[in-house]
Amino acid sequence: MQVFDLMDKHGHEQVVFCYDKVSGLKSIIAIHDTTLGPALGGLRMWPYKSEEEALIDVLRLSRGMTYKNSAMGLNLGGGKAVIIGDPRRDKSEELFRAFGKFVNTLGGRYITAEDVGTSTEDMEIIRTETPYVCGLAETSGNPSPVTAFGVYRAMMAAAKEAFGSDNLAGRKVAVQGVGSVGLNLIKRLLEAGATVYAADIFPDKVQKAVELGAKAVPADRIIDQECDIFAPCALGGVINDETIPRLKAKVVCGAANNQLLEERHGKALSQRGILYAPDFIANGGGVINVAEELQPGGYRSERALAKVSKIYDILLKVFKMSREMGIETYEAANALAEERIRKALEQKRMYVPV
């Protein structure tokens, strides 16, 4: 495993490997780009099969955060952290305190928050060791409902582009992954009059969706579900050589990060006539919400929700760029984010007396 080659490939500034013998912590913090500001990105806890798998995931996720934060108009760079472990079995106070200590050694270059496998309660423990943490219960709280709202707004924009109307009533939506974000998205879709198909590797999560009015689908068959919109809301890499031929949707729009296993799969979707809503645009609501904690005067929910609602307009801009420039939607989203970073780098040439 050539770590520096991987960092060079993805354009990373810093990767920190963290180990604590007492708690058993095995963690990796990846800082991708701090041109726009300190790196903000969540902490994911997952039972990775290998250290290499964890490294690849944190590198991909942190790069995605750079693009997400830029596209959402935030003065923040991109970072991410992972803990190797089963969140249903391996959590402890000592584990998160140890992680917090490592975050604190970075002096604010990386600000953490919750992600898959972690919670606001975990962030509270981390907060005892470092001030560089967001998503606290007494401020912005669980970002999942706000992330889901952003995905819902993105789905409306994608429907407008694909079907000519952003009304989701009567649309069939297949949701893969019924975690906190997926369940909140399902609630909004059902309220809007959509028919929702839900799948997850954990049956108890699917049952919650069924109780709301969704239709259960086996986890290994959700890709094959006849629908208007396929919403990946679990882990990344779900859009790949094996799944693309099986999709029976006109739109892919969901909350998962890194939905395309490789960028070429965005073109493969387009060749099949499937509109792709770039993931870091669609799922930007969560980071907007936690970033509000860093604003002067502190967190204000109405301000956060107003910003998240604009994901609709950002995505329509991406679709327009895609059409006018003759490029794929993921390329247009990348261009939007990269242009803001480029301008910030140019302005850094200016000398500002302190």
From TrEMBL:
Pfam families for the chain: ELFV_dehydrog, ELFV_dehydrog_N
Protein name: Glu/Leu/Phe/Val dehydrogenase
Organism domain of life: Bacteria
Gene3D superfamilies according to UniProt: Leucine Dehydrogenase, chain A, domain 1, NAD(P)-binding Rossmann-like Domain
Family of this protein: Belongs to the Glu/Leu/Phe/Val dehydrogenases family.
Active-site residues per Swiss-Prot or TrEMBL entry: K80
Residue span, Glutamate/phenylalanine/leucine/valine/L-tryptophan dehydrogenase C-terminal domain: 141-349
Keywords (A to Z) from UniProt: NAD, Nucleotide-binding, Oxidoreductase
Keyword Nucleotide-binding on entry: yes
Any GO BP: amino acid metabolic process
Gene Ontology terms, MF aspect: nucleotide binding; oxidoreductase activity, acting on the CH-NH2 group of donors, NAD or NADP as acceptor
Residues noted as binding NAD(+) in the record, renumbered to the chain: G177, V178, G179, S180, V181, G182
